[in-house]
Design goal:
Blueprint lengths: L2 E8 L5 H16 L4 E9 L2 E11 L2 H9 L3 H8 L9 E5 L4
Antiparallel strand pairs: 1-3, 1-4, 2-3
């Protein structure tokens, strides 16, 4: 079963360009993961500091492999001081069938 989630965070005032650069570099790496099916980065039209990342993985194992990727921890560590939240807020999604 696919693992689908929405990750949300808000860049601190003045950090939005740095956050955008970082998330796009990270996205390029994540999209190369074998189990990644989507990693789409958005900002809210009404608030360009609010980032939303739509992620889809082949299954739970692929998601766990993503979390253990060698670049995931350093990315999250570098991101933390640049965002308003303590960490990305994750919302896991189920498809309506």
């Amino acid at each position: 079963m696919k693992k689908t989630l929405l990750a949300e965070f808000t860049a601190r005032e003045g950090a939005e360009d740095e956050v955008a650069r970082m998330i796009l570099e990270y996205a390029a790496k994540v999209r190369e993961e074998e189990g990644n099916l989507a990693f789409d980065v958005y900002t809210k039209e009404s608030n360009p500091r609010a980032f939303w990342i739509f992620e889809v993985y082949r299954d739970e194992d692929a998601f766990q492999a993503h979390l253990k990727a060698p670049y995931s921890g350093p990315f999250n560590t570098a991101l933390a001081p640049l965002i308003e939240e303590d960490a990305s807020v994750l919302t896991f999604l189920d498809a309506v069938t």
